[in-house]
Design a protein that fits this description.
Layout lengths: L1 H12 L3 H7 L1 H24 L6 H5 L12 H32 L1 H14 L9 H5 L2 H13 L9 E2 L5 H5 L4 H4 L6 E3 L2 E3 L4 E2 L3 H5 L5 E2 L13 H5 L5 H4 L6 E2 L17 H18 E5 L7 H5 L1 E3 L1 E3 L5 E5 L1
Antiparallel strand pairs: 1-4, 2-3, 5-6, 7-10, 8-9
The structure holds protoporphyrin IX containing FE.
Keywords: Heme, Iron, Metal-binding, Monooxygenase, Oxidoreductase
InterPro entries: Cyt_P450, Cyt_P450_E_grp-I, Cyt_P450_sf, Cytochrome_P450_monoxygenase
GO molecular function: heme binding; iron ion binding; monooxygenase activity; oxidoreductase activity, acting on paired donors, with incorporation or reduction of molecular oxygen
């Protein structure tokens, strides 16, 4: 998957590269491998049939309500999209979250206390409804998605041919700004119909929107004033109210507008459940001798991340 994504990322930015990559054996092979994976997963899923009305139930038109049955090529491409969109994104977020927790024992301890306060020992599975209300758990997830948005370079958007805010959603201040008929970014004139790509990673770490310490993992920046007043660390030393900036209009890990993430709520629920249950059962710590600090440095971005392994020590609690 990761080999193929390098070529796919090139093609998504420079479409004419496809011809060139097809002519080069390594490039063609990487894309072919990714396609094969998509085809295999789709055919496995089709053989299994639908046990419930999931994403593929609709993509493959198992209900038979569509006029035209989707072609095999379309299904392969949907299969790849579902793998990238549905599983690579969540696995990146889990990796980044656990990496941040083992590197920040104070945040880890605080999250552990919140989980232990909500779930009695052995209470499994943990109640998902409680998790929605767990301020620090949700703050840790939001802070992870701020620092490591799973699609770091965002994805191309067309500047609407008029009527931007209505189409893209009022909340999207950054896109709203590009709804004018024509505007300039530095020396480039952006006109309706042009593709614009917002770099999520860079915007999420811009001190004009998140500060102080935009590169640091500080879940407390997501707490409500009420939750902050109950924080047991001297949070105002880390986030002095007079200089703290927290602009959620510049936060869009799931994108915003008509093509935003269809799996957002599922992904959030999945992350809450997995984190709660793993921390309920196991203790995670730094694996001595592992260069854990280098993980972020060794991440490579090709539409999604090519990520090194995270090694942690896991013990049963
Ligand atoms: C942490 C987890 C996730 C993140 C950060 C994430 C992020 C995103 C983003 C930024 C987009 C917009 C891409 C674009 O602008 O074109 C997107 C689209 C999409 N996501 Fe997610 N996603 C996550 C999890 C999931 C899950 C679990 C599923 C499905 C089970 C899913 C399914 C999709 C699909 C199908 C699209 C394409 C929507 C469309 O083009 O209309 N995602 N996701």
């Amino acid at each position: 998957m990761e080999g193929g994504i390098v070529s796919l990322a090139m093609v998504s930015h420079v479409p004419w590269m496809l011809k060139f990559l097809n002519a080069v054996s390594g490039g063609k092979e990487a894309i072919e491998r990714a396609r094969r994976l998509g085809r295999r997963k789709v055919s496995e899923r089709l053989k299994l049939g639908a046990r419930r009305k999931d994403l593929f139930y609709y993509l493959t038109d198992e209900e038979g309500t569509g006029r035209i049955r989707p072609s095999d090529a379309a299904l392969t491409s949907d299969g790849l999209l579902a793998i990238i969109a549905g599983s690579d994104t969540t696995s990146t977020t889990f990796m980044a979250l656990f990496w941040n927790l083992v590197k920040n024992p104070q945040a880890y301890a605080r999250l552990q206390r919140e989980i232990d306060a909500n779930f009695a020992r052995g209470e499994l599975p943990c109640d998902v409804n409680k998790m929605v209300e767990m301020g620090y758990l949700n703050a840790c997830i939001s802070e992870t998605l701020r620092l490591f948005p799973a699609l770091p370079s965002g994805s191309p958007r067309y500047v609407p041919l008029g009527g931007g805010p209505k189409v893209l959603g009022k909340q999207y201040a950054l896109f709203n700004r590009i709804s004018a008929a024509r505007f300039d970014i530095c020396t480039i004139s952006v006109v309706p119909g042009m593709q614009v790509l917002l770099h999520t990673w860079a915007i999420h770490r811009d001190p004009r929107y998140f500060s102080p310490s935009p590169d640091s993992f500080i879940p407390e920046r997501w707490l409500t004033p009420d939750e902050l007043s109950r924080a047991d660390i001297d949070v105002f030393k880390v986030l002095p109210p007079e200089t703290t900036v927290h602009d959620i209009n510049a936060y869009f890990p799931f994108s915003i507008g008509p093509a935003n993430c269809v799996g957002k709520n599922l992904a959030l629920m999945e992350m809450r459940m997995v984190v709660c249950q793993l921390l309920h059962l196991f203790r995670f710590s730094r694996f001595e001798g592992d260069p854990v600090d280098e993980w972020e440095h060794d991440l490579q971005e090709f539409l999604i991340y090519k990520k090194p392994d995270v090694f942690v020590r896991i013990e049963r609690r």
